[in-house]
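Incident log, structure service

09:12 report received: a user says their structure output differs between two submissions of the same chain.
09:20 pulled the input from the user's history:
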Amino acid sequence: MSSPLWDRCVDHYGQEVGDFFRLHFSEGHRKCLFIAGAGFDPRATLVAGHLSETVGDRLSCLFIREERPDPDETLVARAEANLKSLQGMCTNNRVLIINVFSDDNAVVGGINAVSNMANIELDTYTDIVIDLSALSIGISFPIVKYVYDAVRGLRMQTNIHLLVVSNPELDSLISSAPNDRITEVRGFSRWDRLYGEDEKARLWLPQLSGGRKETLRLIFNAVVPHDTCPILPFPSDDPKTGDKLAVDFVAELENEWRVDTRNFVYADERNPLDIYRTILRIDDERKPVFQSFGGSVVILSPLGSKILAIGALMAALERQFPLVYVEALEYNVPWTRLDEVLADASKVAHIWLYGEAYLRDIRE
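09:34 re-ran on a clean worker, output below:
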């Protein structure tokens, strides 16, 4: 059993993130590409300003606008205001408009994002910072996968940094109208084709999140897992969050998914490495058990907390786990309540995914 790829991961939280970037980018030779969402989410502008102050004219920005059919007018206005603010923070910028759906309602956001990324010369930058705070997983995960594979495949020493501004209260206020079909995140394994749907024992690890009942039902009914291990946040800022979610999903847990109480997975809501290591450990423990019965496949659905989603992404990058979700057709936001959420309640997390911190791994 090999050690996890990010067993000794370089990570920072809160004030440490700003301190690290000020020190790191104080070196004049560094050129940074900053990739971030430019949508309605109020977290869209929280990182760009600090990074611009630190890096100065050595900063280039790629701002991504996710376009969905018939968006709410207030949502569009908020997105336009965020984009204007972002462009004021970084003059050397490019706006990339990504259509999430095609004319026949097929999900094409991931394909479009990767196709556009192929036009960027990644080796001209010493650092690439990807802010997942205001991007959907259908766009952000394929971008991270493409950048990681490209840089690693060419053995570049370009640093890849993942950033997220997490605010569970804010996440709980943003609900979505889901598409009527499930989608696999582009670039990762297909659970129903590569593994052989009827041959391997399917374990589904869904991240429970408020307002995601219909989405998780769609995924469960499509995947039809042999076992389900729901992921609950603990510890978390609100110690009762996990209990509240368990109560909210009690019908699904007991009647539909038939979850044994011993199968709950608890993950630190403030540390993506916790769920990353837990997922790998579960996979390691299942492999010898199911080896004689066709094998095992772990299927991830990282919905809800952005920090937990990063941990799931890291596990999928390492083991090529399928990532199954349902793309949002539209978002519904109670703007008055959203504006009351305190900005200082947001937590910034940084994961140094690849680069100089792991020179030994790059050379090997």
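09:41 both user submissions now match this output. Likely a transient worker issue. Closing.
09:42 reviewer note: The chain has two domains: 10-167+340-363, 180-326. The mean pLDDT is 92.
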